[in-house]
Amino acid sequence: MSNAVSTASETTRRRAFSWAPARTYLQAAVILVWCLAPFYWMIVTAFRDVGFTFDPTPFFTHVTFDNFRTVFDESLGNHFAQNLLNSLIVAGTTTVISLVVGVFAAYALARLKFRFKELVLGFILGASMFPAVALITPLFQFFTGIGWMGTYQALIIPSISFSLPLAVYTLTSFFREMPWELEEAARIDGCTQGQAFRKVILPLAAPATFTTAILTFIGAWNEFLIASQLSVDSTKTVTVAIASFAGAQPHQEPYTAVMAAGTVVTIPLVILVLVFQRKIVAGLTAGAVK
């Protein structure tokens, strides 16, 4: 009797074990389809002829490249190449400044001992949670008063104010997990504190730095609310330009051209993530196992 019960329980365990990988793959597939379905539909619509915009077929049908030509057709009033350059300038400058300031600020918060250190970190995190919509009117009045309205710095400075807290928090968590012995060994070998930071700490912090840089760049690249109010035609970013996109047909919403523009905007982010995906994973898991 006991042998029969043990055999039955063993069979049950084997069945449960064999179903576990299949269930995991099924769950991953559902999540993948749920997340990628909007992007897939955007790409399908971007390559679709205008006359078949609302064709419910979920495959590439009536393929054309006219939508991408419309995106870069300046005769229609679209200056998408300039908009791409504007977004690159704003997002790139925001990333570089946030990273440089964030590295030193995070190192100070993680390594140095001073009063109210946790309170300072709390204020930094609180700044990132402040609603951006509440800042639009003060920023508009301020930049208009000093003559910066519609300039790159009017877009970069607010973007830094939102991306810097994320950079500081992410890098602070990483620096706290880094063992002090590495820096002390460098100091014993004759390095100054600055040399130890530059030659030992920064190379070890590369995964977290890459991750922070990519997250900051993506956030600045996708920013819309502030850019829509503080930019002019010459400094308009791609997110703002897509919202006011002009199509080839007058008095008709250019859905396919907007999807083509969205595809062009998404390509740099996809390439960035694919190239540095190992760095991103390493940075996100840094410090998880001590």
UniProtKB/TrEMBL annotation:
**Gene3D superfamilies recorded:** MetI-like
Source organism superkingdom: Bacteria
- The principal location of this protein is membrane
Q: Which GO terms describe its biological process?
A: transmembrane transport
PROSITE patterns hit by this protein: ABC_TM1
Which stretches make up the ABC transmembrane type-1 domain?
84-276
| Transmembrane spans | 24-43, 84-107, 119-143, 155-175, 196-221, 255-276
| Protein location | Cell membrane
Q: Which Pfam families match?
A: BPD_transp_1 (PF00528)
GO cellular component, as recorded: plasma membrane
Q: How does the protein associate with the membrane?
A: Multi-pass membrane protein
CDD domains attached to this UniProt entry: TM_PBP2 (cd06261)
Q: Does the keyword Ribonucleoprotein apply?
A: no
Keywords on record: Cell membrane, Membrane, Transmembrane, Transmembrane helix, Transport
Kindly list any coiled-coil regions of this protein.
Answer: none
User: What family does the entry list?
Assistant: Belongs to the binding-protein-dependent transport system permease family.
Q: What is this protein called?
A: Carbohydrate ABC transporter membrane protein 2, CUT1 family
Phylogenetic classification of the source organism: Bacteria, Bacillati, Actinomycetota, Actinomycetes, Micrococcales
